[in-house]
């Protein structure tokens, strides 16, 4: 990289005829994986939320982890966007770039949302309300997650990390969820409306815990 810059300068100044290393391609940079929470970190976070807060914050954190929403999608979620029963649940999400999606709600999240709704005292159409407003703000949600980052000492805990956790857990499940389904659940679409599998492949990138498990698997002791 430094030699290329030096020779390019010499060539531009006329000291040499051309850049002798200009045609050499740079080695590809390793793809950086997004930050996500391990199972142990998820358990630590959920324990802290249950011990510290009420049903509202528990429902918010678990919605991030089990639906993989963006912050604005969570704030925009309305009660009428949900269909909840003992056996089935769906959430209609107004997605990025007007690409909406319908997400299944698993039994764990259904129970938490139903418990939250039983004690929710507000006439607001939005699912998650704050003390001062009928709708949670993105800044308010981010501030709440920052509070838990400090309490749990999980350095990479952010709203976006919770969304990435959903994608990573799907892609690395046993058996793994096919990437076209992960793309649809994450709201990754191409311009033509088909699932953007290339964008979703980032969630298959091994994390430190995955690499440690791989190395440990060949241990003889």
Compile the SSE list and pairings.
Layout: H1 2-13, H2 39-52, H3 55-67, H4 71-76, E1 82-84, E2 89-93, E3 101-104, H5 107-119, H6 138-152, H7 159-171, H8 179-186, H9 197-200, H10 208-216
Antiparallel strand pairs: 1-2, 2-3
Supply database-style keywords:
single chain; 221 residues; mainly alpha; hpI Integrase, Chain A; 2 domains; 3-stranded antiparallel β-sheet; 48% helix; 5% strand; elongated; DNA_brk_join_enz
Notes on the protein architecture:
This is Tyrosine-type recombinase/integrase. Keywords: DNA recombination, DNA-binding. InterPro entries: DNA_brk_join_enz, Integrase-like_cat_sf, Integrase_catalytic, Tyrosine_recombinase_XerCD. With 221 residues, the chain is mainly alpha-helical. It has 2 domains: 1-29, no CATH class; 39-205, Intergrase catalytic core (hpI Integrase, Chain A, Orthogonal Bundle). It contains 10 helices and 3 strands, in the order H-H-H-H-E-E-E-H-H-H-H-H-H. It has helices at 2-13, 39-52, 55-67, 71-76, 107-119, 138-152, 159-171, 179-186, 197-200, 208-216; strands at 82-84, 89-93, 101-104. A 3-stranded antiparallel sheet has the order 1-2-3, with helices on one face. Strand 2 (89-93) and strand 3 (101-104) form a beta hairpin. Helix 3 packs across helix 7. It is elongated and about 75 Å long. It starts with a helix and ends in a 5-residue tail after the last helix. The model has no long low-confidence stretch (mean pLDDT 87).
Query: If you compute it from the alpha carbons, what radius of gyration comes out, rounded to the nearest whole angstrom?
Result: 23 Å
Strand order of the largest sheet: 1-2-3
Overall CATH class of the largest domain: Mainly Alpha
- CATH fold label of the largest domain: hpI Integrase, Chain A
Extract low-pLDDT stretches: none
Distance, first to last CA = 44 Å
Summarize the main sheet: 3 strands, antiparallel
Number of domains: 2
Shape: elongated
Average the pLDDT over all residues and give the rounded result.
87
By CATH, the architecture of the largest domain is named Orthogonal Bundle
